[in-house]
Write a sequence for this structure.
C-alpha cells in the first residue's frame, strides 16, 4: 500500500470571468516536503493558495488531502482537516495579548492530528488551551511575550505570532504566504530556521510562497514555477534556476525574480 501525497492537485483551474488565473495545474506535495511556489506578480500564486485553503472554489479539477477529495470544501472544513495557513500580512489581533491571540486560534482547533500528543487533542478546556499556548509560544520563541499585546510586538515577532496561531490548529500541512515579507535580514534567518524546524521536528509539510529567492531556494526540496496560471517548471532549486523557461519568464518582462 502506498501512502497518498499530503496534497495533490489534479488539473486545477480557476477563472475569474474571462481571466484564467490558474489553468490545469497538477502537482503533489509529498510527506516531509518543503514545497516552494514561485512566479512573477499576477502568476496565480495566491489564487492557487486560496483554492487549496478553501477560500475559492475551483472552476475545474480536484484537490486531494491525504488521498481524500476536498474539492470545493469551505475554509472551516479545510482547516479542521489539518490544512493550516499563514497570511502575508501579520494577521493578529493587535489589541489582544499574545496569549489571547493563541486562545482565539485554539478555538478553531480540529479534533485529531499529528500534534495531538504534543499540543493536546481538541482543546476541551481553558487549562489545555493555556498549556498548548505555552508550548506553541516556546516553539516559536514568544514565551517572554505572552502577556504583551500583538500590536506592541516588533513586526518580526508579529509574523512569528501569525505562525504560532496557525500551529494552534495542529496542521499536518501548512500553507505559508510570504512568511519573510517585511522582515529584516536577521528576522528572515529566524523565520527560515522556524520553517525548517516545523518540518524536521514537527513533521509538518510546507507549501511555501515566498519572494525572497535566497530563502525559498535554500529551504525548498522542490519548487514549482508558474506564470500566467500555468506551470513552467518543477524541480529542485538548482534545476529550476537553470531552466531557460524560468529565466525567460522572469527576464522576459519587467518582473523581479519572485
Ligand atoms: N478575486 C479575484 N477576482 C478577479 N481577478 C482576480 C482575483 N484574484 C486574483 N485575480 C487575478 O488573477 C490573476 C492571478 O492573481 P494572483 O493569484 O493574486 O497572483 P500572484 O499571487 O501570483 O501575484 C491576476 O491577474 C489577478 O488580477
Ligand atoms: Mg499573491
Amino acid at each position: 500500500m502506498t501512502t497518498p501525497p499530503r496534497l495533490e492537485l489534479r488539473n486545477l483551474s480557476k477563472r475569474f470571468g474571462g481571466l484564467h488565473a490558474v489553468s490545469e495545474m497538477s502537482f503533489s506535495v509529498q510527506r516531509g516536503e518543503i514545497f516552494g511556489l514561485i512566479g512573477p506578480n499576477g502568476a496565480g500564486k495566491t489564487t492557487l493558495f486560496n483554492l487549496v485553503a478553501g477560500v475559492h472554489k475551483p472552476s475545474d479539477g480536484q484537490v486531494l488531502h491525504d488521498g481524500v477529495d476536498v474539492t470545493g470544501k469551505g475554509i472551516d472544513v479545510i482547516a479542521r482537516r489539518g490544512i493550516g495557513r499563514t497570511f502575508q500580512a501579520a494577521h493578529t489581533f493587535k489589541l489582544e495579548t499574545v496569549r489571547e491571540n493563541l486562545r482565539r486560534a485554539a478555538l478553531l482547533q480540529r479534533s485529531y492530528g499529528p500534534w495531538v500528543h504534543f499540543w493536546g487533542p481538541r482543546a476541551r478546556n481553558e487549562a489545555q488551551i493555556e498549556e498548548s499556548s505555552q508550548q506553541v509560544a516556546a516553539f516559536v520563541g514568544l514565551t517572554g511575550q505572552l502577556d504583551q499585546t500583538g500590536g506592541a510586538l516588533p513586526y518580526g515577532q508579529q509574523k512569528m505570532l501569525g505562525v504560532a496561531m496557525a500551529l494552534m490548529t495542529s496542521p499536518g500541512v501548512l500553507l505559508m504566504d510570504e512568511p519573510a515579507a517585511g522582515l529584516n535580514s536577521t528576522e528572515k534567518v529566524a523565520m527560515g530556521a522556524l520553517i525548517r524546524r516545523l518540518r524536521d521536528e514537527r513533521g509538518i509539510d510546507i507549501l511555501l510562497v515566498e519572494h525572497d529567492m535566497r530563502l525559498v531556494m535554500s529551504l525548498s526540496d522542490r519548487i514549482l514555477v508558474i506564470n500566467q496560471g500555468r506551470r513552467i517548471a518543477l524541480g529542485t532549486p538548482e534545476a529550476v534556476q537553470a531552466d531557460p523557461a524560468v529565466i525567460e519568464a522572469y527576464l522576459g518582462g519587467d518582473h523581479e525574480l519572485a
Remarks:
- The beta strands are 7-16, 19-29, 34-38, 60-65, 68-69, 83-86, 173-177, 205-209, 222-227, 230-235.
- Confidence is low (pLDDT under 50) at residues 110-123.
- The chain has ten helices and ten strands.
